[in-house]
Specification:
The structure holds two protein chains of two kinds. By secondary structure, chain A is an alpha/beta fold. In chain A, β5 and β6 form a beta hairpin. Chain A has 14 helices and eleven strands. Chain A has helices at 26-41, 64-71, 87-100, 141-155, 160-179, 192-197, 225-228, 249-252, 262-275, 280-283, 294-303, 312-318, 334-338, 342-357; strands spanning 9-15, 50-54, 78-81, 106-114, 200-203, 205-206, 215-223, 236-245, 286-288, 371-380, 383-393. By secondary structure, chain B is α+β, with helices and mostly antiparallel strands. Chain B folds into two domains: 4-325, 3-Layer(aba) Sandwich (Peroxisomal Thiolase, Chain A, domain 1); 345-467, no CATH class. Classes of the chains: A alpha/beta, B alpha+beta. Chains A and B meet through α4, β5 and α8 of A and α9, β18, β19, β20 and β21 of B. β5 (200-203) of chain A pairs antiparallel with β18 (396-404) of chain B, so a sheet runs across the interface.
Chain lengths: 395, 470
């Protein structure tokens, strides 16, 4: 079984500002992201041989044709991918396989979401389509992760105050990083007191423990390394890809602990194996992870092997994950501040890693950026979809 | 063999309007069902209390008595029988439209058992009548349910005789489509209705079996309110202090069709072998019964009963909460969320065993219990080798929870839990009848049948967990 390492290169990327784009449609967002990527890659749109579209919530027509129409990708194959919060990364992953297989030379991956037209607070609460008796309780995203926060505090003996303060530090860090990023949805610094005093959304998670709901799009153009060489010198290589799907274990198995998510552990292991990573804490230079809620980021530190089990709090307290720390996480503000247009988020994360590895991240630039990781987690505890991707500089 | 009562059970909701409820001016305490309860769910709770320690497969009839059915066309008894996990080859019927439906169902059950068409009939009476705010009824109507099993074996109270009268009068009525009970002028309604007819029925019974008030240990009879109850005791010739069952007006309230059976359950809790009890129900006529308590009452297992349910209570903090629960005010939802879709009747039907009977499975290979039923075992991946397991009467503990302050509920926050069952298995469910400050990881829980929501004219029932009561 051959891994994906060094078989695919990113040669161009684009990403819109994320936020409440009352004056932009999904088409506008896709055109902006795609043309930035075209320009970055220095290619002619006509050279694109196939495309993948990541889109979670469909409003009307949501097929590959939606992307084809926006960009006038005339009569080439376009596949729509929907896989919860991993949608964007999974679209990217499938495109990588097509390129690595040698079927295409140059392909486009687009992730887009236009959430703010829905008129809803938060995300639409969706039921599994085959659970038609509607007896499953409504469990919106904040509740899903609050369930883990309650258990994590209990399991490790953190008082409510200690737990909340640890989580607050993660929100403060991500807001700081977001404040350095003109494309982030939120660009304001916040204080620990603001986080602690914010209204409760899903106890124990308050308003500032939750990420933004945003509109946005991000795009990547990928090619085999031999082709990448002819386009630019600083292309970025895919080093590892992992995807893991839960089978409702947290909901069925009374030994599922809810202080870690096995989907992250297994997806990361698979990507680490591809990339040949043995000690992620030491080897990975920076990570952009799925901080849909502050507690999620705390668990991710442990599940990705950045912090020992039960000890992520110590690393948070020590500032290990800040821009200046040993392993900066969510350098671009994360979902918390950059915002979370579901289908676009995975590609937005890759965009940040791509820019950091190229040394083009401006005031957010981390000192050493040779190996970066992205991570998405979508769905519901026990049946998450988790995607982990690892990227490296070409030399 | 004699026919009579073989078991009894009660259900009184946890919440009360009373002293300490802001905006509640009546000087009484009464039980109010939560927003997710109705006559069906309360009937199920009383039925479970009554069936405690009994073999549910032995029940071969279920009569549901209520004036507050959720469906005008669709049987309530069938839903209750399903939730109680009774057999399917049983006779079920609704007794409705009269406050006397409780004693009518009892009479019908007695006749069925005597005729031999059924061996054990479960009679469940439940009511949740909505009084018009600030009406005279608001200080009286309470919510609750009672259950009685009528049979021939292990009879704890033989029903020696019965007598009924039918009487047409407009004293109380609730027209189709009207949410509230209406009544005739007070003096007329009492004098020509209740105070006249119930004594006539009791007199008829006494003549039939040659008994007088002196022959009775306890008199259990319906009354519209506390004053009429005292007046009736006097008119029937019972000593109020020693011979009359306490009517619960300042505890549960007038629970409609359940009222006389609930008082009977309370009387049986204190009864001794040899006691003779008068039971009388009123509404469009009257039913009267003579019961004789047997030695068998000593062998009846423990249950929560009236006493247990009365002891475990929470006073609602304010009338506004009650008004929201009953949709007396149109409160805005806490967040903008998409409207609920109605359930698919096909899916509700297909999943009735797992949703209404709350059955999961136990893997025959590895022994692990799981809910809902799976095709492939979550632990050992063995395919289709499962035994059915009922979870509705299993104890559980709270594994983790969250309080959803934006969730769609008339009583925010919505408490979403993962619970672990005593015998293994986990379920994600809503916690009801909870006090937020008392919720703790590891707390003991029990399951309770509740109405999740009503969408598109469909009442969707399911189980929630709740802190173990009292």
């Amino acid at each position: 079984m051959g891994g994906i390492k060094d078989r695919v290169a990113i040669i161009g990327m684009g990403c819109t500002k994320f936020g409440e784009h009352w004056d932009k449609s999904a088409e506008d967002l896709m055109v902006e992201a795609a043309y930035e990527a075209y320009e970055d890659a220095g290619i002619d749109p006509k050279d694109i041989q196939a495309a993948w579209l990541g889109l979670q919530y469909s409003f009307g027509s949501a097929r590959g044709t939606m992307l084809a129409h926006a960009l006038k990708l005339n009569y080439i194959p376009v596949t729509r991918v929907e896989n919860a919060c991993c949608t964007g990364t999974d679209a990217f992953r499938n495109a990588c396989f097509a390129v690595a297989a040698g079927v295409y030379d140059l392909v486009l991956v687009m992730g887009v979401e236009k959430l703010k037209d829905s008129g809803l607070s938060g995300l639409p609460v969706s039921y599994a389509p085959f659970w038609g008796s509607r007896v499953e309780p409504p469990v919106p995203a904040p509740v899903q992760f609050a369930l883990a926060a309650t258990r994590y505090f209990h399991h490790y003996g953190l008082s409510f105050e200690e737990g909340k303060k640890t989580l607050a530090k993660i929100a403060v860090k991500n807001h700081h990083n977001g404040s350095l990023n003109p494309r982030a949805h939120f660009q304001r610094e916040i204080t620990i007191e603001q986080v602690l005093n914010a209204p409760m959304i899903a106890w124990p998670l308050g308003l500032f423990d939750c990420c933004g709901v945003s509109d946005g799009a991000a795009a990547a153009i990928i090619a085999r390394p031999e082709i990448a060489k002819s386009t630019r010198s600083d292309y970025v290589l895919v080093k590892g890809l992992g995807l893991s799907c839960g089978a409702r274990q947290a909901l069925l198995n009374d030994d599922y602990d809810m202080v870690h998510f096995e989907e992250t552990v297994t997806a990361a292991n698979s990507a680490y194996q591809d990339a040949g990573i043995k000690n992620p804490r030491e080897e990975i230079d920076l990570a952009v992870v799925h901080d849909c809620f502050t507690i999620t980021e705390l668990l991710i530190y442990e599940d990705l092997g950045f912090s020992p089990r039960g000890r992520a709090k110590e690393d948070v307290d020590a500032g290990f994950f800040t821009l200046e720390g040993g392993l900066p996480v969510n350098t671009d503000g994360g979902l918390k501040c950059f915002g979370h247009p579901i289908g676009a988020s995975g590609l937005r994360m890759i965009y940040e890693i791509y820019k950091q590895l190229q040394g083009k991240a401006g005031p957010r630039q981390v000192k050493k950026a040779d190996l970066g990781l992205t991570h998405n987690l979508g769905g519901h505890p026990g049946h998450f979809t988790c995607a982990v991707a690892i990227f490296g500089r070409k030399d | 063999m004699m026919a009579g009562i073989t078991s009894y059970g009660a259900y009184i909701p946890l919440f009360r309007l009373g002293e300490g409820t802001a905006g509640w001016n009546a000087r009484i305490e009464k039980a109010v069902a939560s927003y997710d309860e109705d006559s069906i769910t309360m009937a199920v709770a009383a039925g479970i209390d009554c069936l405690n320690g009994m073999e549910r497969q032995m029940v071969d009839g279920l009569y549901l008595a209520t004036t507050t059915v959720p469906y005008l066309e669709k049987q309530g008894a069938a839903i209750v029988a399903e939730a109680l996990d009774l057999r399917e080859d049983i006779f079920t019927a609704d007794f409705a439209n009269s406050l006397r439906a409780g004693t009518q169902a009892l009479r019908a059950a007695l006749d069925s058992v005597k005729a031999g068409s059924a061996k054990q009939v479960l009679v469940v009476a439940a009511d949740m009548r909505l009084p018009q705010p600030r009406s005279e009824f608001e200080a009286v109507f309470g919510d609750g349910a009672a259950a009685i099993i009528v049979g021939r074996e292990n009879v704890i109270a033989e029903i020696e005789e019965s007598y009924s009268l039918s009487h047409e009068i407009l004293d109380l009525w609730r027209a189709a489509g009207d949410p509230f009970v209406r009544s005739a002028e007070d003096r007329f309604a009492s004098e020509e209705g209740y105070l006249k007819i119930l004594p006539l029925a009791v007199k008829g019974l006494f003549e039939k079996c040659k008994l007088t008030p002196r022959d009775f240990t306890k008199a259990v009879f319906y009354a519209p309110d506390a004053r009429r109850h005292r007046e009736m005791a006097r008119r029937l010739g019972f000593d109020l202090q020693t011979q009359v069952q306490e009517p619960l007006f300042n505890k549960a309230g007038n629970t409609g069709t359940a009222f006389s059976l609930l008082m009977l359950a309370a009387a049986l809790e204190e009864a001794k072998p040899g006691d003779r009890i008068l039971l009388a129900g009123y509404g469009d006529g009257a039913d009267a019964f003579v019961l004789r308590v047997t030695e068998e009452i000593k062998n009846l297992g423990s249950r929560r009963g009236v006493r247990g349910h009365l002891k475990s209570k929470k006073i609602l903090p304010d009338y506004l909460t009650y008004a929201r629960w009953r949709a007396l005010i149109d409160a805005a939802p806490p967040a903008r969320r998409p409207p609920l879709d109605p359930p698919s009747p096909a899916a509700v039907y297909r999943e009735r065993k797992q949703n209404v009977r709350l059955y999961g499975v136990k893997c025959k290979h590895c022994g692990y219990q799981q809910y809902p039923p799976q095709r492939v075992c979550t632990k050992c991946r063995t395919r289709d080798q499962f035994a059915p397991v009922r979870f509705s009467d299993q104890k559980a503990t709270l594994f983790t929870y969250s309080l959803d302050y934006l969730g769609p509920t008339p009583d925010p926050p919505l408490v979403i839990c993962f619970i672990d069952f005593e015998g293994g298995g986990r379920m994600q469910c809503i916690m009801t009848d909870r006090t937020i400050e008392e919720i703790k990881v590891g707390m003991p829980l029990e399951m309770s049948f509740r109405k999740l929501h009503t969408v598109g004219g469909i009442h969707n029932y399911y189980w929630k967990c709740m802190p173990t009561r009292g």
